[in-house]
C-alpha cells in the first residue's frame, strides 16, 4: 500500500513527461530522467527540451521535489539521517532526494536500464546516441547492480595503458560526480533497499561512492566520456555551489582537461 501511494505521488510530482518506456534503439534503455528543480530552472528546461526533442529525439522525464513542502520533509525523514540538515545545504539535500525519487520510479516502472542526467548536462560531440548504444551493448554483459559514469566532471580517466580498442567500460572505485550516469534496475533496487537499513548521510555522489566502498554498488567509467557538467566547464552556473560561468572558467576547464586527459595519464599505470 505504501509503495503504491509513493508511486502515485511520484506520478503527480513529475510535471514534464513526454512519454515513458521509450527504448533507445538497439539498447535496453527504457527510461531517461532529468534531475530538476521546481523553481529557477526554466532556461535549463527549455535548453534540454530542445536537445532531447529536436536533436537526440529521446523522450525525457523531468523529476522534481514536491510542491508541498511538508511532503518533502516526510521524504527527507524517510531517506536521510536525522542530522543531515546540520551539514548539507537545502539544495544538496533536494538534489540528492530527486535522484532517490528517480530510483523509485525506475523500480516502479521496471526499467531494465535508465539514463539519469542533472539539468546542467552538456553532451560531448554530436553522436551521443551512437556512443550510448555502444555503452549499453557492453553493459548488457555486466553483472546486474551497476552504475556507469558517463561524465568527466572530476577529470579522472582510466589509465591510458588499460584502455583498449572497442572497449568502453572500465571498473572504477568511485564515481565521477552524479551529473550523468546509466543505471540498471538491480542497482536502483539495491540502493533503495540499502536506505531501509542505512539512511543517506551525504550528497548524492558521495553516497554513491560510499556504497561502492561497501560493495553495495558496482561502478564503471565510460571512456571516452560522453558528457560534461555545465556547472564545471563554465557553460552554466551551479545550483548547489559557488562556481560561476564565463570565459575564464571555461578556459581553465579546457586547460585542466587537456592536461589531465592527455599528459597526466602518461604517468599513471
Describe the structure.
- It is built from nine helices and ten strands.
- It is of the alpha/beta class and 269 residues long.
- The chain has one domain: Spore Coat Polysaccharide Biosynthesis Protein SpsA, Chain A, CATH 3.90.550.
- The strands form two sheets. An eight-stranded mixed β-sheet has the order 1-3-2-4-8-6-9-7.
- The longest helix has 19 residues, at 90-108.
- It starts with a helix and ends in a 6-residue tail after the last helix.
**N→C terminal distance:** 52 Å
Strand count, sense and barrel status of the largest sheet are:
8 strands, mixed
The average pLDDT score comes to 88
CATH C-level: Alpha Beta
Order of helices and strands: HEEHEHHEEHEEEHHEEHH
Second-tier CATH architecture: Alpha-Beta Complex
Strand order of the biggest β-sheet:
1-3-2-4-8-6-9-7
Could you give the count of β-strands?
Answer: 10
How helix-rich are the residues, as a percent range?
40-55%
Fill in the CATH topology.
Spore Coat Polysaccharide Biosynthesis Protein SpsA, Chain A
| Assembly state of the chains shown | single chain
Radius of gyration: 18 Å
Shape field: globular
Low-confidence stretches: 1-20
Class from secondary-structure proportions: alpha/beta
How many independent structural domains?
A: 1
Strand content: 15-25%
If helices are DSSP runs of H or I spanning 4 or more residues, what is the number of helices?
A: 9
Amino acid at each position: 500500500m505504501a509503495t503504491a501511494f509513493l508511486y502515485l505521488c511520484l506520478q503527480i510530482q513529475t510535471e514534464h513527461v513526454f512519454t515513458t518506456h521509450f527504448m533507445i534503439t538497439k539498447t535496453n534503455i527504457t527510461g531517461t530522467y532529468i534531475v530538476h528543480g521546481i523553481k529557477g530552472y526554466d532556461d535549463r528546461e527549455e535548453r534540454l527540451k530542445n536537445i532531447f526533442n529536436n536533436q537526440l529525439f529521446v523522450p525525457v522525464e523531468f523529476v522534481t521535489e514536491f510542491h508541498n513542502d511538508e511532503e518533502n520533509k516526510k521524504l527527507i525523514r524517510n531517506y536521510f539521517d536525522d542530522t543531515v540538515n546540520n551539514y548539507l545545504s537545502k539544495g544538496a539535500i533536494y538534489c540528492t532526494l530527486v535522484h532517490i525519487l528517480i530510483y523509485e520510479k525506475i523500480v516502479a516502472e521496471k526499467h531494465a536500464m535508465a539514463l539519469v542526467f542533472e539539468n546542467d548536462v552538456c553532451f560531448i560531440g554530436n553522436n551521443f546516441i551512437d556512443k550510448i548504444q555502444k555503452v549499453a551493448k557492453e553493459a548488457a554483459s555486466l553483472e546486474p547492480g551497476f552504475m556507469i559514469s558517463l561524465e568527466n566532471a572530476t577529470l579522472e580517466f582510466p589509465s591510458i595503458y588499460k584502455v583498449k580498442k572497442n572497449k568502453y567500460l572500465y571498473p572504477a572505485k568511485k564515481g565521477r560526480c552524479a551529473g550523468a550516469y546509466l543505471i540498471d534496475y538491480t542497482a536502483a533496487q539495491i540502493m533503495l533497499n540499502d536506505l531501509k537499513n542505512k539512511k543517506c548521510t551525504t550528497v548524492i555522489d558521495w553516497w554513491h561512492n560510499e556504497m561502492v566502498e561497501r560493495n553495495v554498488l558496482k561502478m564503471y567509467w565510460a571512456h571516452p566520456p560522453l558528457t560534461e557538467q555545465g556547472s564545471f566547464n563554465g557553460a552554466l552556473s551551479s545550483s548547489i555551489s559557488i562556481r560561476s560561468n564565463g570565459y575564464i572558467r571555461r578556459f581553465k576547464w579546457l586547460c585542466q582537461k587537456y592536461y589531465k586527459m592527455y599528459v597526466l595519464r602518461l604517468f599513471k599505470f
